[in-house]
Amino acid sequence: MNKPFACILLLVIIMLFVNCREKKENAVIFVKEEPVKEDAVKAWLHKAENYKKSDKYLMVFYNYYDQKIKAKKYLNAAEILDIACVYLADSYDFNDRFLAKVKEFDSKYREKVPALKTTFVDAYLANYYFDKYNLKKACQYFKKITTLEPYDYNSCYNIARAYYDLSYIYYIMGKQNLSLLANQKSFEYFTKINNPKGLAFVYSNYANIYTAIGDKKRAIENADKAIQAYKKIDNTYNVYIGLINKISIYEYLKDERERPLIDSVYQAFTESKDESKILKIKLFDFKIENLIHENKLSEAKKIIDDLKPIVEDIDSDDLTQEYKLTSALYEIKKNPNYSNFEDFKKALPTLISNQQYEKVNMVYGLLQKNAIQNKDYKDALNYESKKKIIADSIGNIITRIKTVELEKKYQTEKKVQQLKIKEQTITNKNTTIALLGATLIGILFISFAFNLIQKQKKLRLEKQNAQLYTKQLLEKTEEERKRIASDLHDSVSHELLSLKNSLEQKAEITNQKIDAIINDIRSISRNLHPVMFDKIGLKESINQMVERAESVNDFMVTAEIDYHSVLSSSDELQIYRIVQEALSNIIKYADAIAAKISITENENSIIIEIKDNGKGFNVEETLNSKSSFGLHNIIERSRAIGGHANITSNTNGTIITIEIKKA
User: How far apart are CA 570 and CA 629, in angstroms?
Assistant: First the structure.
């Protein structure tokens, strides 16, 4: 085969491969796999009815799980723990023994199983902390799941569910713009696996968000969408959850349709003989409030007494608090002088600090009703003012505007994506014509091959010279920074300290000014050069950077560093600057929830990866713009130490990868 023909054939093959790959990427969808045949015990544990009806469920689980751990079959142990975690979390069952098992697996065996097979640990712990009103910690665990990339149906579902749960927590905390962003991410991942139940979850969250910002029409529309979606998949439990959500929306918006809906849903539930304890507590709480409103106190008392053993059996902080609030409403209606509110008042600071605004609003409402009943209108007005503050926290006007803007932006992006898909369809139909054109271009390309090779040799030499110059320039810059930092820290700062000591007897204002100057100088010193870098090394310096980023920006960053100081100190400093620049860009521009930094060393090279789950950007367009100094800084620093930087970005986030060949 002659060389020109071989080159043409190779070009055609490459074009076909790229075209096929583009088709695959534009149609990314994870299909649910057929369930693998399980052994008898695992199959028994997998059945939800066995968990609901059998007291021996956990005993069977513990025996089976311990056997797998003892046999060092950690993946099998993880799979069965995953099943149990789902059932217990959905049932608000956070008993100490099972929680200890989860934490033991997390600390001892988790690293022995692929990361995407262990997300259930983070999900269970997140739900546990949510039940204990620690929303910040719950957020951290859900965010850990969202930093991963799915590779199959189940992992995509778990990531989608984590975004959904994160969206709900942000809604409770009053961060409706973040809630909307997380919910849109959840929608994207559920769409990839075409999961109707997941999409119904998303509609429920949209209903909550629009309720918080006062968009009554959209709130009800999305609540109805969720209910209809559950009905289509014949999911009775979630149909009731959807109806409960709709009742809550009516209650929040003070809609007169609330009470008739409570009565009709309560009647349907009692006639169905449904045994779900969670649904019973939530629906019966609403029914008790209706009966109290209608002054049917004996009927309300009967339901309160019926619910008590169920609430005690579940032992959920969240559900117990709601039950106590409902019981207190009954007590103040029955006895105007009832004043046993100490537990609620003690709980308020914790609820407020954990941003559990819904529960705070319920407590204030209870205290306000008691004040009105006792004709204490001053206290009633005070509680009304506090309720207004909480309502503003849940959906303030700035958040409302941001949320509406985000919704418009998202709908526009969806339309753009649809247009791209149509364009891609047309492109695929014209593939044959494109390949013929590519063949002709290939023939022309071959005729210029020799000249191109010569030019490449020349460019390679120029690149080497430029690389040497850039490296020298950067090293000189860092040396100068280090010298200035040292002068500021060791000379000027010490002189000011001496000045402060000599003026101790003078006005306090002088000391304050001197302290401010000293702090400014130390700050300049740290910015010019990381003072402890030469002593603690690259790994610890990056860990300190990560800690500062998290504490200052309320932003989750993780670092995994497997590096053993094989580069020179000056090259390590360039790596530190690259990571610093990348992290700064993420915080400023990415709108990301979390980021991950990893440095891995193998036999031939060192790989640095900085990854976020932000909104992404057009790499080529940004690099060609006037506002891309940060990205060019990363690329040039990489070149200066013999590395190559690769930047990829899409709507799922941005990845910066740098490979440095060892000498």
Answer: 22
Per-residue pLDDT tens digits for 272-300: 888 788 888 888 888 888 888 888 989 98
Exposure class string for 83-108: b at 16+ Cβ within 10 A, else e: bbbbbbbeebbbeeebeebbeebeee
- 550 with 604, same domain: the answer is yes
Contact between 323 and 311 under an 8 Å Cβ cutoff? The reply is yes
- The contacts of residue 467 (CB under 8 Å, 6+ apart) are 639, 640, 642
Question: In terms of domains, do 629 and 560 share one?
Answer: yes
**Cβ neighbours around 345 below 10 Å, total:** 10
> Considering only 146-155, 281-290, 513-522, which range has the smallest mean pLDDT?
513-522
Is the C-alpha dihedral spanning 589, 590, 594, 595 positive or negative? Answer: negative
Do 512 and 548 reside in the same domain of the chain? no
On whether both 598 and 488 belong to a single domain, the answer is no
Counting the structural domains of the chain, the total is: 2
CA-CA distance, 190 to 505, in Å (whole number)? 69
For residue 239, being part of any structural domain is answered with no
C-alpha to C-alpha distance for 308 and 292, rounded to whole angstroms:
17
Summarised one tens digit per residue, pLDDT across range 194-239 is 888 888 999 988 988 888 787 888 888 999 999 998 888 888 888 8
Contact 229, 203 (CB under 8 A): yes
Q: What share of the chain is helix, strand, coil (3-state, %, to 5)?
A: 75, 5, 20
- Give residue 634's identity as a one-letter amino acid code: I
Residue 579 located in a structural domain: yes
Assess whether 553 and 490 both reside in one domain. no
CB distance 479 to 529 below 8 Å: no
Same domain for 519 and 544, yes or no, is no
The CA distance from 301 to 179, in Å, is 38
Asked whether residue 564 falls in the same domain as residue 616, the answer is: yes
- Contact status, residue 307 vs residue 265, Cβ threshold 8 Å: no
pLDDT, one tens digit per residue, over 614-633 is 999 998 888 887 667 788 88
The answer to whether residues 552 and 649 belong to one domain is yes
Q: Angle between the 135-146 and 153-173 helix axes, to the nearest 10 degrees? A: 150
Domain hosting 507: range is 465-528
